[in-house]
Amino acid sequence: MRRGNRWIVSMFISAGLMAPLGALAMPKPQDDRERHEQEEHQRRMYDPENRDYHNWDDREGRMCRQWLERRNQGYVDYNQLSEREQREYWRWRHKEEKRDRHEEHEEHEHEH
User: Fold this and answer.
1) Using 50, 70 and 90 to split pLDDT, how confident is the model at 92?
2) DSSP assignment, residue 12?
3) Is 45 helix (H, G, I), strand (E, B) or coil?
4) Domain limits at 73?
5) Residue 79 lies in a domain
């Protein structure tokens, strides 16, 4: 193979190997609001007692605020809560989910 052809072939091979890396790159946020939204979207919390993960989004933030209000406690970021408080939150959160599902089921049965 001639020297020129080797160079072209090596360029195509290099480009082919680099293409998957470009597909994995995430776009950078354009401003602080977009950065905050991206961080919130990617935030996941682990519940060790139930051995599951929860996406921390606006809904979860509202639920946490509700839990804090019921405890007559001012807002505190989840990460600032003690491990004991975090466990208590997830215990309450799972009970709320079960209660909500039960109420939805009851409403659905009464519709028919």
Assistant:
1) very high
2) H
3) strand
4) 32-111
5) yes
CA 36 vs. chain centroid, Å, equals 12
pTM above 0.70, yes or no: no
Q: Is residue 2 part of a domain?
A: no
Structure tokens at 59: 């809904």
Instruction: Tell me how many domains the chain contains.
Output: 1
* Distance in angstroms between the alpha carbons of the first and the last residue of the chain: 78
Q: What is the 8-class DSSP label of residue 43? A: -
CA–CA gap between residue 43 and residue 37 (Å, rounded): 10
Residue 111 above 90 pLDDT? no
Residue 17 lies in a domain: no
Both tokens of 108, joined, read: 């659905």
Is residue 91's pLDDT more than 70? yes
Which amino acid is it at 23? Answer: A
